[in-house]
Design goal:
- By secondary structure, the protein is mostly beta strands.
- The chain is built from eight helices and 50 strands.
- An eight-stranded mixed sheet has the order 5-7-10-9-8-11-12-6.
- Strand 15 and strand 16 form a beta hairpin.
- The protein is globular and about 120 Å long.
- It starts with a strand and ends with a strand.
- This is TonB-dependent receptor plug domain-containing protein.
Length: 822
């Protein structure tokens, strides 16, 4: 066997590149280029992962989804302390629309939030989707998604799901190992049989050639998946006949084989120490060159090897100790350095946390205080500091409908690196399942994976990402000319107006294409922003648009989740209790409303105060309307003939203004002019647009004395719409200005749980909460310990407790406990 083998592994943050074996030839530069470009690509586009734990899988309208997000970096699974913003969407499956959008503040890799479910939400299936701004640079397939079901308390349980068997044609797909079949060479074909609802189906069948010969038989191994081996022959086409448990038979074509090429087969099961990679080819003897194999996991190279194409069969053994826990990808490049085969493998290292939840007693009474002692240790039994989130639910109301549901561990190590929905992901992490590793290997052969495309990796340069890592809220947009062309560099002023009346004024400029962004903003709830753009000295003939006011669109080609199916009576107790709780809440709100007898109050109407005025009552006021602005050439022309005692003469653009009685021996004394309370020249008033004027006050005689000797000729005070404290800037369509309302960080709400050791009036009402406790930020100490307390409800039931969490260096863990209330 002629192989050049190069191994890459991380030691203390450095990449060590030892050449392990070189026999018979001098290597070309492709392995070096492959390694360099691979490392450069993942340096330019590092990956992030997000996981969200919720308190339960289904809700009624009126309830709250309590959630906590975990942010990790892709390669090492370290807690992601760089991204400070987490976006969470609630998507309705039927309409494929975002019905709720939340922005959560992330600190040290954790984000806490909630979604209050309004009465307007329709019953049915939903998906919770979470992502960072940086993740928007890549495919939505790797956003975190989690199915949720929303119910109405007035719905019949039988209407909330359909448990009738599906009789539609199943979906059966065939996946040649490595990606292709080659004539005359034995290969393995994995297959997956799923129902229209996306669930794996038990099936068996056989393969027929176009000549009518039976080639092989097959049957599913786990959740509709399995594999078989066959050797395709030249000129033959193959068809699989699949028989389901209901007796129906369906036929599907097997992918056609290529006349020549490579076959890639991986043995990840039989050898304890190594992963064996078998590479065979039937290239003509005249073919010269070397094929290349690279193994990588989460953007870190593990090993690169080369072999001579003249060797028709080669075995490469990769030590298991080089693989981190999780999914690794093995890719085969042919002698022309083109990728021709790919295979995923899963490496289990059992490097996960043990989370132990110990209740203070075995059985509790209704409304009794429950104490849980939490202990967390690593795989070696050493206690570790861990950040956890914990949910305690009434098992009679919150049913575990999905066996082996997803957890932080299964998502981080498995689901986050695969496309599509994985059925029962927790099955592959339960040591009680003896066949789980072989079943997991079949899953690796059938599930989609495309974190990147090799063509993009091997480029010499990479385009700049559109979305940056967000260390705060981002205000981004673009300035263009009215003809939509780039304006060049534009000066920008931003005014942020918060609900608490505080303001921030920022200034900056766009790039030459008019693009701009303000990063690192920090505000809660919604905030109004006014943006003004100026090109050159005073050119505001510009248009401004914002880019990030909406969440990403939904681009599913097919619905990835189906609503949970319930039996007729399963939800009866839950819906009954939910309805009682909502009725009580409505009654409490009604009781807080104090009904008064009808009282008639008479008071003289006072004119609204305007903070721009330093005087009291004006002598005369002219409220400007459309009938005045239609033919007026100037602001002063609108006064002509409308206010007694005000005389305007001369040309419209150079008028003489006199208020009756304002004259001396030198002639006419013109009044003092002000705009929004600021003294200005008459020319300034003449240049003001008549459409910007709200009203005009005229002050005569004693009313003008507050302005001193400057107002010996009286005062004409012009007040603009924009200057008013009550002006709605969103209606301002002036060039170079944009006003918008920006969503801010969601204010964190605290989960309410009654304390029955403290007597309170509200304790008299019945308590049948489905979620008894939600604690999103539990931190164990140096001894790996923490403690949680809460109170049981009135229900004599079973309580399920689920705690999930991870260390800052990326070790995940899940703990469960079952408590009895009698």
């Amino acid at each position: 066997m002629n192989l050049l083998l190069v191994s890459f592994r991380r030691l203390g943050g450095m990449v060590v590149v030892p050449v392990l074996l070189a026999l018979g030839f001098v290597a070309d530069d492709f392995p070096t280029r492959l390694f360099d470009r691979f490392r450069a690509y993942h340096t330019a586009y590092p990956k992030e992962k997000v996981y969200v734990q919720t308190d339960k899988p289904y809700y009624t309208v009126g309830e709250t989804v309590w959630m906590k997000g975990y942010l990790f970096d892709g390669p090492e699974h370290l807690a992601d302390s760089i991204s400070k913003v987490l976006y969470v969407d609630l998507l309705q499956l039927e309409s494929r629309k975002v019905v709720v959008h939340r922005i959560l503040r992330a600190e040290n890799g954790y984000a806490v939030g909630d979604i209050a479910l309004g009465d307007s939400l329709a019953a049915g299936g939903y998906v919770l989707r979470a992502y960072t701004g940086w993740m928007r640079n890549f495919a939505e397939d790797y956003f975190f998604t989690k199915p949720l079901t929303i119910l109405h308390t007035d719905s019949e349980p039988a209407q909330l799901g359909n448990d009738k068997p599906l009789t539609a044609r199943p979906d059966v797909q065939f996946f040649p190992e490595g990606g292709q079949l080659v004539n005359g060479m034995e290969g393995r074909i994995a297959f997956k049989t799923v129902s229209p609802a996306g669930k794996g189906l038990t099936a068996s069948g056989f393969v027929l050639s176009s000549a009518g010969d039976t080639v092989t038989g097959f049957s599913t191994k786990h959740l509709g998946m399995g594999y078989f081996s066959m050797t395709p022959e030249t000129g033959q086409h193959y068809t699989a006949f699949v028989k389901l448990d209901d007796g129906s038979t369906h036929k599907f074509p097997i992918p056609d084989a290529r006349p020549e090429g490579y076959v890639l087969l991986v043995d990840n099961i039989t050898n304890r120490d190594n992963v064996r990679v078998y590479i065979r080819n039937n290239k003509p003897s005249s073919t010269q060159g070397r094929f290349t194999v690279i193994a990588q996991s989460r953007g870190v190279s593990i090993q690169i090897a080369q072999g001579d194409v003249s060797k028709k069969s080669v075995v490469l053994q990769i030590p298991r100790q080089l693989f981190p826990e999780g999914i690794a990808q093995i890719t085969l490049f042919d002698e022309t350095n083109q990728p021709v085969g790919e295979r995923l493998v899963f490496s289990e290292r059992n490097n996960r946390l043990t989370v132990h939840l110990k209740p203070s007693k075995a059985v509790f009474s209704p409304r009794e205080k429950i104490q849980l002692d939490i202990t967390v240790s690593d795989a070696s039994g050493k206690p570790v500091r861990t950040n956890l989130s914990l949910a305690a639910t009434d098992a009679h109301q919150v049913l575990e409908k999905e066996p082996y549901a997803a957890s932080l561990a299964s998502y981080l190590l498995l689901s986050s690196d695969l496309k599509g929905v994985i059925e029962q992901p927790g099955y592959y992490f339960d040591p009680a399942n003896n066949e789980r590793l072989s079943d997991l290997d079949v899953l690796m052969m059938t599930q989609g994976w495309r974190r990147f495309v090799w063509k993009d990796v091997l480029q010499d340069t990479y385009p700049a990402p559109k979305h940056l890592v967000e260390q705060g809220l981002v205000l981004a947009g673009k300035v263009v000319r009215p003809n939509q062309k780039a304006p060049g560099t534009v000066a920008l002023t931003f005014m942020l107006m918060r609900r608490d009346s505080t303001q921030n004024i920022l200034s900056g400029e766009s790039d030459e294409n008019g693009q701009f962004s303000v990063n690192g903003l920090d505000y809660s709830d919604s905030t109004r922003v006014m943006i003004q753009a100026v090109m050159g000295k005073n050119n505001r003939n510009l248009e401004i648009s914002l880019e990030n006011l909406a969440s990403p669109t939904v681009t599913w080609t097919q619905i990835p989740y189906k609503p949970i199916v319930f039996q007729r009576d399963e939800l009866a107790d839950y819906l009954k209790r939910a309805k009682e709780y909502l009725d009580i809440e409505r009654q409490i709100r009604r009781n807080r409303e104090i009904m008064l007898k009808e009282v008639t109050i008479r008071k003289k109407k006072e004119a609204p105060t305007d903070s721009r005025k330093i005087y009291g009552q004006a002598s005369n006021t002219l409220k400007v309307d459309q009938t005045m602005t239609g033919g007026a050439q100037s602001v002063l022309q609108m006064l002509q003939g409308r206010i007694a005692g005000v005389n305007i003469s001369g040309s419209p653009m150079n008028p003489t203004v006199q208020i009756r009685g304002s004259a001396n021996f030198a002639g006419v004394v013109e009044p003092l002019f002000t705009i929004d309370g600021v003294p200005v020249s008459k020319d300034a008033v003449l240049t003001l647009s008549v459409y910007d004027v709200d009203y005009i006050d005229v002050l005569k005689g004693a009313a003008a004395t507050i302005f001193g000797s400057r107002a010996s000729g009286g005062v004409i005070a012009v007040y603009t719409k924009r200057g008013s404290p009550d002006y709605d800037y969103s209606k301002d369509k002036s060039p170079g200005t944009l006003v918008a309302t920006l969503p801010g960080f969601r204010t964190v709400r605290e989960f309410y749980a009654p304390r029955y050791d403290e007597p309170k009036p509200e304790h008299v009402r019945p308590d049948y909460r489905p979620t008894l406790h939600w604690a999103p930020m539990i931190q164990t100490d140096a001894d790996g310990k923490a403690q949680v307390t809460f109170f049981a409800s009135d229900a004599r039931t079973t309580i399920h407790v689920l705690a999930e969490g991870a260390t800052t260096n990326g070790l995940p863990g899940v703990g469960k406990a079952v408590l009895e209330v009698k």
